[in-house]
Amino acid sequence: MEASIQEGIILIPDFNGFTEFVFNTKLYTGEYIVRQLLSILIDMNDQYFEISEIEGYAILFYRYDQDPSYQKISKMLWNMQNAFNKKIAELSQALSVSIDLSLKFIVHYGKFSQYTIGNFRKLYGKTIVEAHQMLKNELAEQPSYVLFSDFFVEQIQKQKNDFNDDKVHLPEVGSIHYFEN
Length: 181
Prior knowledge:
There is one protein chain. The protein is of the alpha+beta class and 181 residues long. Helix content is 38%, strand content 31%. The protein has 5 helices and 8 strands, in the order E-H-H-E-E-H-E-E-H-E-H-E-E. Strands 1, 2, 3, 4, 5, 6, 7 and 8 form an 8-stranded mixed beta sheet that branches. The radius of gyration is 17 Å and the shape is globular. 29% of the residues are buried. The mean pLDDT is 87.
């Protein structure tokens, strides 16, 4: 069976501060909080992206799309960020715990394929590896941000970039857009 290679968007929302959170939170409480936070991100996706995997404290979303909508994606990211912050405040109050987590989003674009093993669909390709590599960076100065890869920015270049003015371009990586604190 030959894999179908298509162009599309990779979106990975990832929790900052997760390791410390796990070590400093009781098992069942931590599991409940993480489940609630991942669920709110999935809900805010509104079925725009498909889910490839939930990787502990990150979700690998994808969408095959040769003409991605910057406005739709940026609005979704703002909604995810706001819902995440609201849910943290609710859970902190309800459970009387401090939840020191924030979000970083990686938005990347390129070619990738998909294959099936049993009931699982897996994404494959250089684009997937690059998106994961972008998660491991020391580039951001603030806890919550979006890193739009250069490949994604090139794809949406004709569209108005209205995320916010607080952005930093990183040569050969992309642009970091900060959420307001």
